[in-house]
Design a protein that fits this description.
With 204 residues, the chain is mainly alpha-helical. The protein is built from seven helices and two strands, in the order αααββαααα. Strands 1-2 form a two-stranded antiparallel sheet. The longest helix has 34 residues, at 135-168. The protein is elongated. The protein starts with 11 loop residues before the first helix and ends with a helix.
């Protein structure tokens, strides 16, 4: 039996597919984070804030361009979905990425007998940081996420089928090409020694 090895290569369709699969991973991460918030709503504020940040950053990241070309807003032909999408982006931009919204407040207060009297008894701090939205709002945020993920899933499959046919010939699909790849190679062949153990731990 001929020994197989994983080889990188250059191809225009491949590059487009890689970008789409990377966006798909971002949206899947956002969806898992959103589900985790809903399942652990009463947990600590630190965990909630971490999950909410991951959700917002991963979602908005899928629309950003840099090393790859991100999604465009015009995938939302429904005005309501577009408005929710922009609201999500606004929360990420003004609260998570930059502290310029009312979602964070830090005020030093004075304790006085009466507001009209100038007698200070002590000083204190009122600090408030928005951790995550209510379950109803999270359900609303899921709508553009699911739409974007559906769009990306379809594009990834289309590009994968196109690449499989370009390189392997008519009748081949992205699914069959992946099946053939993993039938002759293991995770260790692709990612290096110990990959199976590392991947198993990451999935737990």
């Amino acid at each position: 039996m001929i020994a197989m090895q994983a080889m990188n290569f250059q191809n225009k369709t491949k590059k487009e597919l890689e970008a789409m699969l990377s966006i798909q991973a971002d949206l899947n991460r956002a969806e898992r984070s959103l589900d985790a918030i809903r399942q652990n709503y009463a947990t600590s504020s630190e965990v909630m804030a971490a999950l909410y940040t991951q959700f917002l950053v991963s979602y908005v990241r899928s629309f950003a361009s840099g090393r790859r070309k991100g999604l465009r807003e015009d995938i939302f032909t429904d005005r309501e979905l577009l408005a929710i999408h922009r609201e999500l982006k606004g929360v990420r931009d003004r609260h998570i990425a930059h502290p310029v919204s009312d979602h964070e407040q830090c005020v030093v207060l004075a304790a006085v007998p009466e507001p009209s009297r100038n007698e200070l008894v002590g000083l204190g701090v009122r600090y408030w940081f928005f951790v995550a939205d209510a379950p109803e709002k999270l359900s609303e945020y899921r709508r553009p996420l699911e739409f974007a993920l559906s769009h990306v899933n379809a594009e990834a499959e289309r590009l994968g089928d196109q690449l499989a046919q370009e390189l392997l010939g008519e009748g081949h699909t992205w699914e069959s090409a992946q099946g053939a790849f993993w039938s002759v190679l293991s995770a260790e062949d692709v990612f290096g020694p110990g990959a199976d153990d590392a991947m198993g731990q990451a999935q737990r």
